[in-house]
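Fold this sequence, please.
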Amino acid sequence: MWGFRACGDYDLSFYNFYPGKPPSPSPTPPPAPPPSGDSQHACKEVEFPVDFPKGISGKVDDILGWLSSGFYLQWNLPQQCHQCDENNTLCLSEHSKGNQGHFICAAPNHVAGAASGPSGAAEVKSKANTKVIAGITAGVGGILIICFVFFLIYYRHRHRGNFFALPKRRSPSSPLTTLSASMASCSRYGIHLFSYEELEQATDNFNSNQELGDGGFGTVYYGKLRDGREVAVKRLYENNCKRVEQFMNEVGILARLRHPNLVTLYGCTSRHSRELLLVYEFISNGTVADHLHGHRAESGSLPWSTRMSIAIETAQALTYLHASDIIHRDVKTNNILLDQNFHVKVADFGLSRLFPTEVTHISTAPQGTPGYVDPQYHQCYKLTEKSDVYSFGVVLIELISTKPAVDITRHRHEINLANLAINKIQNQAVHDLVDPCLGYDSDDSVKGMITSVAALAFRCLQYDRELRPSMEEVLEVLRGIGSEDYGAEVVDIPMDNTPPPPLPITPDSFTGKWVSC
């Protein structure tokens, strides 16, 4: 057997076992393996039995020469040291009397004061178990926190809001508040909810070739649904607050209205949709403006009888709106659609506004169309149902004259058609205002009706709102004109000593913004 001290000042000792002789009756006990680490506790005596090969004597020089050629040393970790290795502690031999061959575990920085025997190992193991439990608890807690964060993200995505934000008071006109309520009205009033993808497919991905025109606050596209119905899809321009309000007004208003002379709303998109869209019935024959002075205008295409029907049916629609406490606020020939039989469908309620029955006036933004806006608005900044009456008076003059409401090529005092009409009627020069194609000079019946309609339009165009008739009275007068047989009777326009109204502000002198937010 040989042994050495694993330190710089090692020494070497050996014992020879000769062949055929039994070992010493008191053999050397199993050696203590050297612990890991570079501390002073690594300096331990290690002893191993060695069988010298033949030719090697027991002399020290022979043994040292034999060792200098190198040798392999195999160390088998005792079972008791496995616990120390698993807990990252040192495995030390127990040298107390009667404990030879036993080992203890100790932390590297507490070797000197380490507990001995099985109790010390249990203490270290208990501390290690505590660390493991703490680690598992922290891991589970982290997973729960991550799950909670993902839940909040999902909740915010579904509800389109800030989960952590405190409740805020919003004004009644807040677009965000009104948006949910207005879009929810689709379901409340039984209107069909379309998916964005369905309408995208119906309009060929909103192809520019499918555009029907400008609907006031959005572009209108022709579309064909899967069931074969032809529709007009109105697409909001952008999320401008005023345009969102207009869009929502139209949904809420049209959802409640049913009249043969109002365009029918088929449905809308959900408030969760990518865009806000309205789906109307498709009116194939264009607008009154198209047929009077637009791309559909042809001489004789709208005889007086048809124009008279257009006036009556438009008045019916506006009377119905006023009876429902609704102001249209953008009455014009571009918003009067015609079907194949030239029946009227009044459209574009984006500028409409509900007003309470107990309130007689309502403040509004100047959102009408130049040439049709009530001139008194610029004095009191209010629009009422009498403002619709004024705009309808301009429509009557368009039907009589086939002239547009605004034409900058006319004399500067006659750019606005209302100004031109008032001047002609006051000077008893209605014939200068009338479209020659209507037969005013050749048909006494037509002449009588046109003269009476001009007189009614003159009343509608009065500057003082109190002098204008109600829409209900306008409808009654038009029906009387349409049913009366004038024959060869000459009709004079009764002036009733009414002072001429001041010239309303024309578009060429108005520089304010017509649509504001």
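The chain has three domains: 2-120, 175-281, 288-509. Residues 288-509 form a domain with the Transferase(Phosphotransferase); domain 1 fold (CATH 1.10.510.10).
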